[in-house]
């Protein structure tokens, strides 16, 4: 087993590596570092997470001339995030040195700041193709004395469509340069580019069969489009990842999923091309520092994403091909650590999943959460039934035994007859209560009718006097008697007077 010292790395660099916990070189580092130090052109095919960044950074730092104030090494990356990550790795290694400097050149950043730093002694430039061509056109980046050229993630640059820009940049460099090409896969277009621009390259392949890392457990879960969001939320709550990356097909789907997960109180952030560079850098920083547990991203934005501690990868949208699948799940299980990659697929996407398995010569275990939940429900119900039957049996066992089955039946019949008698007595008592209540109601009704009749008679007996005053029946009778007596009295007086006159 090689160590860094035997590979040609200086003791000062080894001490810095040890401070960051890097003690032994990975297979790709063991094969690439000696060849690069010797000045050979190399084509290294290694999947992400194998330590290939240090595989070209360490030997380049050994060969850089600190006193020379011009661009000696150029590293081209497909994305801004990968450019920043490589720049961070270089800065860690040269932090104690004042004679070396590195600059990240990418779109979305203030050009004036880049121009000011380019005027200083910058020996290493890391950038994306578009912004590099911009600086070459401005005359602010001179590649005429370039010694080392690195094409990192070359297959992804082909996928994005940057190969023409990369060729334009390579034309601005001297043919005497040393060229290093790193790629997870090796499409024919990349091989053609290598033959055209690389002289007698050395081919390095870490694994014969290019596939996912063995430390990554892979699963595929069936889910239609309508239930995808609920399925993902259920998976996140079930597995509780320390850090997880969720891949979506488009920027719009990233934003929509981010809103849904945020509403469900899942600590997450989003990263895609429509966000400003400041927001993307802030999202990456929060994810690296574990301030958020879930990062939702597109393939392009997460390309080359190298974050320690990513435990889970969720393919919310299935990858379009085997290469994208390798790059996605390569975010976890890095440097020998274990990881879990879960791919959601529908019946319409099943052929794509089968094609990925066929190209990678692997078998991904498939599950259906709906059926799993049904099975769990059945097992719970069956266990509940068994427990209830056990309770019944125990209850039967606790009953006192009688001699023979006939005795038990007699006891049951006796109990049933007693219960019937009790029910009959209860019914009879209820009927008696009902009849008494009915009789009481009838009596009260009759009394009410009598009272009404009395009141009506009293009101009929009432009358009004001549003066309009209301009197009772006794007063009316007295008034009649007085009027009759007066009439009779007047008749007598008249008769008396007549007799006297006579």
Structure description:
With about 500 residues, the protein is of the alpha/beta class. It has two domains: about 5-205, P-loop containing nucleotide triphosphate hydrolases (Rossmann fold, 3-Layer(aba) Sandwich); about 215-375, P-loop containing nucleotide triphosphate hydrolases (Rossmann fold, 3-Layer(aba) Sandwich). The chain contains 18 helices and 16 strands. The protein has helices spanning about 5, 10-20, 25-35, 50-65, 80-95, 110-120, 130-140, 155-160, 165-170, 190-195, 230-240, 250-265, 275-290, 320-330, 350-360, 370-400, 405-460, 475-500; strands at about 40-45, 75, 100-105, 125, 150, 180-185, 200-205, 215-220, 245, 270, 295, 310-315, 340-345, 365-370, 465, 470. The strands form three sheets. Strands 3-4-2-5-6-1-7 form a seven-stranded parallel sheet, with helices on both faces. Strand 15 (about 465) and strand 16 (about 470) form a beta hairpin. The longest helix has about 60 residues, at about 405-460. The termini are far apart.
CATH superfamily of the largest domain: P-loop containing nucleotide triphosphate hydrolases
> What proportion strand?
5-15%
Number of helical runs? 18
Evaluate the radius of gyration: 49 Å
Compute the number of strand runs.
16
How far apart the termini lie comes to: 179 Å
Average pLDDT score: 78
Question: Which structural class best describes the helix and strand composition?
Answer: alpha/beta
Envelope shape: elongated
In total, how many domains does the architecture comprise? 2
In the CATH hierarchy, what is the class of the largest domain?
Alpha Beta
In terms of per-residue confidence, which ranges show pLDDT below 50 for 5 or more consecutive residues? 374-383, 394-425, 462-474, 486-502
Biggest sheet architecture:
7 strands, parallel
Q: What is the second-level CATH architecture of the largest domain?
A: 3-Layer(aba) Sandwich
Q: How much helix, percentage-wise, in residues?
A: 40-55%
**CATH topology name of the largest domain:** Rossmann fold
Task: Give the neighbour order of strands across the main sheet.
Answer: 3-4-2-5-6-1-7
Family: Belongs to the DEAD box helicase family.
Organism: Rossellomorea pakistanensis
Pfam family, one: Helicase_C
Protein name: ATP-dependent RNA helicase DeaD
